[in-house]
Amino acid sequence: MKRVFYTVAVVFILVVTMAPLSAVAGKTVNATLKQAITISPKLKVYEYHYPNGLTVVLVPNKKAPRTTVYHLVKVGSLHERPGITGIAHLFEHMMFRPLRPGAPGFDDLVKGLGASKNATTRFASTHYYTLAPAKHLQRVLEIEADRFQHLQVTKELLDVEREAVRSEYSTGLDANPIWDLWFTIYRAAFRKHPYEWMITGFREDLEKITAKDCNEFFAKYYKPNNVGLFIAGDFSRKKVLKWISQYYGGWVSGEKTELPLAYQHNDKYVFQQGKLKSSVRRFLIGYRIPEWQGERRYIVEVANYILFAANYSLADRRLLFDQKLVSMVSSFNFDYARGMAKVLVNLLPATTLQQAMGAIDALRQDFRNLPEREFQAYLRQWQISLAESIQRNFVLVEGLSHSWNKFGDIKYAIEESRQPLKVEKGSVQTFIDRYFVKSNMVVVSNKS
C-alpha cells in the first residue's frame, strides 16, 4: 500500500454538524461531519459518519481526470477460521459477479460507463475501487451500493470463483519463488495464529467452503459499520451526500469486526527453506513487530525506512556498496502485509547466507553510530517521498483508507508529511534493539 501525504500545513477543523440528507425508506438520514482537513487552499478532505455506522470520506478535486470510488471493508484473512480460510479472498472475486440470475455482472455494468475497477484482499481488510468519469458518479454509486447490500452466493457462482483462485495458486504460489518465500515465512513465524494461513488461505480449505459459508460470512461482516467509502474527484459534495443517503442509507448495521489477539508465543529464531527452486540465491528475513497506533507508529515506519526501505538505506550501505555481498536488499511489502517487517535479499554467488545475516545483524550498530544530522536527513527524505505520492488522486484515497483502517483516523495519512516529525533517534534505537534481533528473526531461503 502506498502512503500519501503533502508538505503543506494541515489544518484540522473539528466540527460536529448534522447535515440532513434525502429520505430513505420514509425517513431522513443525517450525516455527521466529524472532521475536515485542509491539504492545500484548493483541496480538503471531509469525513462523515452515518447513523448505520458507515464512514464516508469525500475529497472534491476539480483537477482529477476521473473520480475514484473506493470501498474498504474491515474484514480479511485475520477474521477467518480453520476450515474456511481464504473465504475473504473468495469474496473479492465474487463481488464482481451478477447479483441475480440472468443479470449482468459488475464488470459489465461499469464497463459501459467507461470505468475501470479492481480489488485486493489483505490481512485485516478487503478493498474495492472503481475509477469512472465524474458524470457517471451517481450511477456508479447506485451499482456499488447494490452489490454491497444484495450479493447472494450460489453453488454455481462459488464454483466459478473457486476455479479462479485455483488458477492463482498455479500461476503464483506454485510458480513464483518470491510468493513461495512470502507464504512460507508467515507459516513459519505464526504457528496456530490467523497470520499463518496468509490471504489465499489453506489450499485444502478452498475445496471445503460452501455457498452457505459464504452467505453467512457476507451477512456477518459486509455491514455499513465495517465499511469506509472514500470518494475523490470532480463532484459536488451536496449531490454526493444526497446520493449516498439514497443508496446506502437503508443499509442495516451489524456485528463489528474485531481483530484476533496478538501473537503471544515466545520469540525464537526460525529458519526454513521454501519449496521452489530459484535461479537467484534469495532469502526473506522477517522480524515480528507489534501493531502500534497513533504517533508510536512513526517509530516503526522510520526504523524500517532507514534500515531497509530508503534509496540509500543502512542495508544498502553495508551489504550492497561496502561489503558487496548482495545484488539487492530491500524492504518487502511493509505497508501491504502485517505482523512483520521483512527484507528481501539476493545473494551474490560468492556470498554465504551466514555472511549476509551477520551483516544484517550489524545494522543495529550502524544505526547507533548514525549522526543526528544524517538521522534528520533520512526523516526529511522519508517525508518528501510520502508527500510526492499525493500527486495521484487514487493514491490519496488509498492512503486515507489505509490510515482510517489500520490506525483509526484519516488524519495520520496527512500528518506524516508535516514538519518537523516528532520522532527521536533514541526511541527508534530502542525499538530496533528490541525487535530487529536474531532471537526475533524468521528466515526463509529458496532452494538453489
Summarize the structure.
By secondary structure, the chain is α+β, with helices and mostly antiparallel strands.
Walk me through what this model shows.
This protein has 448 residues and is an alpha+beta fold. It folds into two domains: 11-248, Cytochrome Bc1 Complex, Chain A, domain 1 (2-Layer Sandwich), CATH 3.30.830.10; 270-447, Metalloenzyme, LuxS/M16 peptidase-like (Cytochrome Bc1 Complex, Chain A, domain 1, 2-Layer Sandwich). Helix content is 39%, strand content 23%. It contains 16 helices and 13 strands. The chain has helices spanning 87-94, 106-111, 137-150, 155-173, 177-189, 203-208, 211-221, 237-248, 297-309, 314-322, 353-361, 363-368, 372-388, 393-407, 412-415, 425-435, and strands at residues 11-24, 27-40, 43-49, 55-60, 67-73, 116-121, 126-132, 227-233, 270-277, 282-288, 326-331, 340-347, 441-447. An eight-stranded mixed sheet has the order 1-2-3-4-8-5-7-6, with helices on both faces. The protein has a five-stranded mixed sheet with strand order 9-13-10-12-11, with helices on both faces. A hairpin with a 2-residue loop joins β1 (11-24) and β2 (27-40). It is globular, with a radius of gyration of 23 Å. 43% of the residues are buried. The model is unreliable at 1-26 (pLDDT under 50).
- Determine Rg (CA atoms, Å): 23 Å
Strand order of the largest sheet: 1-2-3-4-8-5-7-6
Listing every helix as H and every strand as E from the N terminus to the C terminus, the arrangement reads: EEEEEHHEEHHHHHEHEEHHEEHHHHHHE
- Structure summary, number of beta strands: 13
Q: How many separate helices?
A: 16
How many domain modules? Answer: 2
Largest sheet: 8 strands, mixed
End-to-end distance, in Å? 31 Å
Estimated structural class: alpha+beta
CATH architecture of the largest domain: 2-Layer Sandwich
Unreliable spans are 1-26
Which shape, going by the Cα principal axes? Answer: globular
